[in-house]
Amino acid sequence: MELVFATNNKNKVKEIKALLPSSMKILTLSEIGCTEEIEETEETIEGNAKLKANYITKKYGYDCFADDTGLEVDALNGAPGVYSARYAGENVTYEDNVQKILHEMKEKSNRKSQFRTVVALNFKGEQYLFEGVCKGGITSEKHGNDGFGYDPIFRPLGFKQTFAEMSLAEKGKISHRGLAVQKLINFLKQLR
Ligand code: IMP
């Protein structure tokens, strides 16, 4: 089975390929000749996942899945949420976003937060949504060098390490994207 994963984020592709059976071939956007940026203009995580998947299916005609993820911090009323990629502004780095959260959380005792991923799958003319949630807490400083994004400041519930201190396999088993993708895989498997 061949499916397009509507992303060019190498970290995400690596994470997802590690979870998929080898019979499932994943094509990335650059591999189908899509070099343009797909703007995430919706106001919800679900909305942006659907928008990206629909863009590819409509323009390129492929069955496709897209994911969108947000970090939702309780003490910040659910921010950065759908704005996680550009929390510190447009064209910022992961580090800028991490520093902004650390700064805003400095005086906060409630460190509870969660990552939420929604995967939208367009398959044979139908659309399906899969959600994965990983609950945890925001640390007071960065720990670890692996992963990407907010990984160095997110410690999943019940663990001593942050995501940035875990291997890809460890993170994949419990992470928001791992859980959403597992649901996607289970769905695809029962179709065959
Ligand atoms: P995206 O729109 O799904 O690419 O995710 C938005 C932002 O959330 C990214 O730019 C990252 O900063 C952050 N993010 C997404 N997934 C993860 C993750 O697994 N770990 C840490 N940060 C993540």
Which ligands occur here? Answer: inosinic acid
Strand and helix order: EHEHEEHEEEHH
* CATH hierarchy: architecture: Alpha-Beta Complex
The number of domains is: 1
- Secondary structure tally, helices: 5
Q: Output the structural class.
A: alpha/beta
> What is the overall shape?
globular
Instruction: Determine and state the CATH class.
Output: Alpha Beta
How would you characterize the largest beta sheet? 7 strands, mixed
Description:
Helix content is 31%, strand content 24%. With 192 residues, the protein is an alpha/beta fold. It has a single domain (2-190), classed as Alpha-Beta Complex (Maf protein), CATH 3.90.950. Strands 1, 2, 3, 4, 5, 6 and 7 form a 7-stranded mixed β-sheet that branches. Helix 4 (168-174) packs across helix 5. The chain binds inosinic acid (IMP).
Task: Summarize the SSE layout with pairings.
Elements: E1 2-5, H1 10-19, E2 25-27, H2 45-60, E3 64-73, E4 80-81, H3 94-104, E5 112-123, E6 126-138, E7 154-156, H4 168-174, H5 176-191
Parallel strand pairs: 1-2, 1-3
Antiparallel strand pairs: 3-4, 3-5, 5-6, 6-7
Helix pairs in contact: 4-5
Inosinic acid is lined by residues 9, 67-69, 71, 84-85, 94, 97, 147-151, 163, 175, 177.
Summary tags:
alpha/beta, 7-stranded mixed β-sheet, 7 strands, single chain, Maf protein, binds inosinic acid, about 190 residues
Brief write-up:
With 192 residues, the chain is of the alpha/beta class.
